[in-house]
Amino acid sequence: MKETIIYGGSFNPPTLAHITIAEACLKAKPEVDLWIMPSGDRYDKEYTVSRQQRLEMVQAMAAAINDNRVHVSAFEIERPGHTQTYQSVDLLNQAYPDRTFRYVFGADAYHGMPSWGHGIELQQTLPMLLIPRIGSTVVQAARNIEVLDVDVPYSSTLVREAVRAGEPADHLVCNGVMRYIEQNRLYATA
Question: Which of 32, 44, 81, 162 could be disulfide-bonded to 3 (CB atoms 3.0-4.6 Å)?
Fold first, then answer.
């Protein structure tokens, strides 16, 4: 069976930190594919940009990574309604029975999983690559978890705030994403 890493998230917008995480995943697991999968609508987040815009920014980010093991997946973003991780896990397993999946989560998301649908089960059984986050301790004791040593000092929120304030954000995102944000006038207003 072919192992595939699923790197999901809002990617609103994708940042250089997302690229750093993707590259760390590829380095840790050089024999696997990495599917970058923007989330569909979520109960815990509201977006000021469309699904299509987030998908296109992820495509720009993937082009900057420039690795043939990286693929952009619209699996979640094309599903109607709100998406939940446990549903996506089940649907991916059904759609790709020839693959095993490992999921990328920030330590903060991992600690919040008990509040998700089937979250405790996911926390205990889902194969994961866990990314340390400021303010969240890292759990390495579980056999299904591998911690990646990655420093991600900034977030998509910082990009949105900088653009909204008219400040430069090009040091936080790759050129293709910055160009997309500027051309589409994203995040300029609240």
Answer: 32
User: Stretch 115-134: mean pLDDT, rounded?
Assistant: 91
* Domain with 66 in it: 2-153
Asked whether residue 166 is assigned to any structural domain, the reply reads no
- The model's pLDDT over 58-85, given as tens digits with 9 standing for 90+, comes to 999 999 999 999 999 999 999 998 889 9
The two structure tokens encoding residue 41: 């609508």
Asked whether the bond before 30 is cis by omega within 30 degrees of 0, the reply is no
pLDDT of 165 higher than 90: yes
Sign of CA dihedral 46, 38, 53, 153: positive
Residue 186: inside a domain, yes or no? no
Distances from the Cα of 42 to the Cαs of 10, 52, 76, 116, in angstroms?
9, 15, 11, 11
Decide if 28 is inside a domain: yes
DSSP 27-85: HH-TTSEEEEEE--BBTTB--SS-HHHHHHHHHHHHHHH--TTEEE--TTTTSSSB--H
Round the average pLDDT of the chain to a whole number and report it.
92
Task: Let me know the angle formed at the C-alpha of 36 by 53 and 16, rounded to the nearest 5 degrees.
Answer: 75
Residue 50 lies in a domain: yes
Asked whether the predicted pLDDT for residue 175 surpasses 70, the reply is yes
